[in-house]
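Before a computer can learn anything about folding, someone has to put a protein's shape into writing. The three-dimensional part falls to structure tokens, numbers that each stand for a local backbone shape. The protein below has been through that process, and both of its lines are reproduced in full.
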Amino acid sequence: ASQLFKGKKVTYPESVGRPFLGDQIIITEHPSWPKGLHKAELPPQAAVVVALNLNKFNRGNGVPKPRIFVLLETHMLILDPKMALKQAIPLADILGLSVSSQNDYTFVLHLRMPEDRKAKGDYILLSESVIEIVTRTYIAY
């Protein structure tokens, strides 16, 4: 994490003392978790690297909406609070992550646009665990 953030992100120094928690919401014990994996066409034994609650900014009006973010070894999943799958993103389709340098926990997930143009595009996200999300995505990628 220090290679990615030291001297570049205002919130980095305060994050140094906080250990990475991984599955913060214990998603694998949620009764709807297997359905989400099945809908994403992923095996039920897919290993969870990070699972947490965050906010996604709505493209139309900029209002934040609660979402569940899950990083697996091969995919990133965005679910609604009721565990319904909103999007399954193969890690190979992630072009990059941009992180605000300010004290606001905001980051952008840049995605490759598929040829069918059905994807909505990049995600603007907000999480106090931004350092963990970006670091673990960098390692998984």
In short: The radius of gyration is 15 Å.
